[in-house]
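Archive entry. Fields below.
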Amino acid sequence: SDSKWEIDVSELSFDRELGSGQFGVVRLGKYRGKKDVALKIMKEGTMEEDHFIEEAEFMTKLHHPNLVELYGVVTKQRPICIVTEYMEGGCLLEYIRKNHYLQTHPDTLLDMCYQVCGAMKYLESINTIHRDLAARNCLVGKNLTIKVADFGLSRYVLDDEYTSSLGSKFPIKWAAPEVLNYTKFSSKSDVWAFGVLMWELFTGGKTPYRAFSNTEVVERVAQGHRLERPQNCPHAVYSLMLNTWDMEPEKRPSFESLHTTFNDLIDTVN
Ligand code: ADP
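PREDICTED_STRUCTURE:
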């Protein structure tokens, strides 16, 4: 059965490596000799491939100006390859670490948060959970456009160290308490992760709770400790972060309401 999203490998050319990550190597490429694309070449054995292929079909139907477009997949041969929009600025976390001047531009950082929030509001509206929202999973395009990538992929990873909240690669520092305690993912657990992403941006890409081990973080968060206000972070923005880190998921704001708040804030910070 031929999926509408199957891309024939003969229509792709593979160029230089852009980076590598959890699932394999990412290369710059061209589609039909014209369109720049990013080619994520999946390491064999890292993904539950059949389910992933089904899900890819769903993911190609998602469209938002702040979501990385998934153009299609190569599954007729191994390794599986995911063809997405090319984002010339690369990973947001690295970008923010390299561009220190951004720390004196809270208006720009706020706009970045607003863009990510827009994509998340869209996912929330169609009941889709990201599960691994963090600055490392966002990409930078032209004119400081920020796009969210890798939505839903984490569900198909076969590595227990990554998928189990007890695993060494599980992103504990971005995880809401109910995710750690009962593996309860929701848009509200995405909201918690979004607050940590905001903190990453306003600290210039610091690692959250750097001095603490994963176990210590879980304990401290449960006791009510929270990440501190980054130096150049406006108080109104920090108070939003604190709202995203409410112990009770239902008390956290929705992405929809955060989006409205950002809109109001952007006028006052400028
Ligand atoms: P993984 O999800 O396997 O951990 P990533 O998606 O983080 O891998 O990709 C690894 C690196 O490749 C990123 O840090 C980034 O620098 C680069 N990269 C990934 N996707 C793109 C893209 N669409 N455009 C440009 N660079 C990309």
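CURATOR_NOTE: The chain has a mean pLDDT of 91.
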